Amino acid sequence: MKISTKGRYALRLLIDLAQHNDSGFITLKDIADRQNISKKYLEQIVPILTKSGIVQSNRGFQGGYKLAKNPDQILVYDVLVATEGNLSCVACLDTEVNVCQRKEDCTTLYIYEGLNQVIETYLKGISLQDILNREQSFDYVI
Fold first, then answer.
1. pLDDT, averaged in runs of 10, over the chain (142 residues)
2. I need a surface site. Which of 11, 36, 131, 133 has the fewest CB within 10 A?
3. Which CATH number fits domain 5-136: 3.30.930.10, 2.40.110.20, 1.10.10.10, 3.50.50.60?
4. Distance CA 41, CA 64 (A)
5. Helix/strand number for the chain, H first, E second
6. pTM recorded for the entire structure
7. What is the distance between the alpha carbons of residues 27 and 7, in angstroms, rounded to a whole number?
């Protein structure tokens, strides 16, 4: 499994929205400027996040985007599944039911199933709020 630019940028976009959660709807231009990401690329990512129920959009005057849920309800796992589609480490585990002809004789299948479970558990254990909390713990004042 390798996280694409789409997945990484989606996470950055959502963290930016979480950081500015009290500001109402945020324009993609503002996010693009702060995150140094192409606005055009963000325009390709936002519909995926909107369709997944992670982001809300508002058109017109004072339009833009905001989180559809509280930051503590948005899991990194859900963001990456929405943008990447599948997080499996091997092709035979891409679908709900393993249809590999060798699955009964595969001596290494348990390794990949275990790895998938560890990845899923880890990513489901991190919310946007957790990321914000970690970031804030590094704000030192001297």
1. 93 96 92 96 96 93 92 97 91 84 87 93 96 74 54
2. 36
3. 1.10.10.10
4. 15
5. 6, 2
6. 0.87
7. 20
